[in-house]
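task queued by scheduler; priority normal; single chain, no ligands, no partner chains; default sampling; output format set to structure tokens
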Amino acid sequence: MTVPRVSHVVSRVSTRSVDPVERIAFWEEYNGQALVGLTCSSYSQDGLLATQTNYRLGGLRLAEITGNEHVIQRTRRTCEDLPKDSVFVSLLTAGQAVFFHEGGCLTVRAGDLVLYDTRRSYLFGFPTSMRQLLVDIPRETFAERCVSGDISAPLLFGRGGAARALESVLADWAAGRGSGAPVRTEATVLDLVRTLAAPRLGDDPGRPALPSRLAMARDHIDRHLSDPGLSAERVAEALGVSPRHLSRIFQHSGVTPARHILDRRLARAREQLTDPVSRHLTIAAIAHHWGFASQAHFTRVFRDHFGHTPGEVRSGAMDGLTG
């Protein structure tokens, strides 16, 4: 069953449809309008083969970029001529890279995250094929929702903990699985960035506390409810904690992680059973979509939770529509 979703794609381009001699100029012009002003160089015999998709993410922008070996650079002159007042969060999901800046050079591997200021010059070189998820956070938003301190040098974070959770959120959004609540997803992204950056940049004790892992766990669960393999162990792995620690995180909520997953699946299934748009779907199809192994199991736990069978809930909703 395919669940309809709203597209949050702003634009999508590829250099493959462009004459090889025009690809660099095309890429520079497009990025200047959609993301940030830069210069680009390619050392491949095939020329620059790159694709970029830009998504809305509430008040943020997410860019998914793939390409062969190439270099992009934002020089001091470019910063002056094409100003951009943002903080970029670059997550390299495939390939490797080097990031040159005023204070030195960073080696970036797949799974690493780099946070940097677009007002400062830098060079990002990709010696292999690459894939990158890049979040554009306006500086004003970053100062208000993340950290107010200045980013005098880029920050490099390895895979794990909040960086791994952020990768999961961004990958889901780029794959179209995060279309339901852009404002909530935006808040999750900013919370995770704050979790990463605050200890490095210094945190104002008067500012709100760092986000709880409980909120991060709940967000991950909501985005993966239709995955039949979703479990407390999977959630713990996504957050970079042990299953035992995840149980402690959920302790104050009054339910176990497994119970929370079940409750959320039942709630979403009930919403769909009462939705006129889904009246053509069978109860078995709805049960399967929300991760239940069988209709019989779904019916039993649904009745235990709501006091009515799925069929009774659906009939009541349909009678209300026609009455």
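post-processing summary
- The chain has a mean pLDDT of 87.
- The two ends are 29 Å apart (CA to CA).
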